[in-house]
Design goal:
Blueprint: E1 3-4, E2 7-8, H1 15-18, H2 27-36, H3 50-63, H4 67-83, H5 87-94, H6 108-111
Antiparallel strand pairs: 1-2
Helix pairs in contact: 4-5
């Protein structure tokens, strides 16, 4: 498995897909990086040689915010919202949906498991 900025990317997948295993890189950014380095996006990640992996590491560290730096930045943004007591920060603190989703139904992933209430009259 090739190791790119500390992450093992799957070697049996196409390079275009393998790069998306790095936090902060999606399909579009993956294709842009591959074009910059003039690599074939259909080649497998295991076919990368040491020079190509080194150039991939260099371009990711110098031009893009990925992995640890990006995670830290997102967490700091959330802490800032909580700290200034804005609406979005309060929603983060309570574990409720932040971006305007409804909570009467379909908010189980944030609110938690459904709790039944005994003797509820209709």
């Amino acid at each position: 498995m090739p190791r790119v900025i500390g992450i093992d990317i799957p070697d049996n997948k196409r390079l275009e897909i393998s790069l998306t295993y790095i936090y902060g890189i999606g399909r579009t950014l993956s294709n842009q990086i591959i074009e910059k380095l003039r690599l074939n996006k259909n080649m497998r990640a295991r076919e990368l040689n040491e020079d190509q992996v080194a150039s991939l590491n260099a371009i990711l560290q110098s031009e893009y915010e990925v992995e640890g730096d990006l995670r830290r930045q997102v967490q700091n943004n959330i802490k800032r919202l909580i700290g200034i007591h804005c609406y979005r920060g309060m929603r983060h603190r309570l574990g409720l949906p932040v971006r305007g989703q409804r909570t009467r139904t379909n908010a189980r992933t944030r609110k938690g498991k459904r709790k039944t209430v005994a003797n509820k009259k209709i």
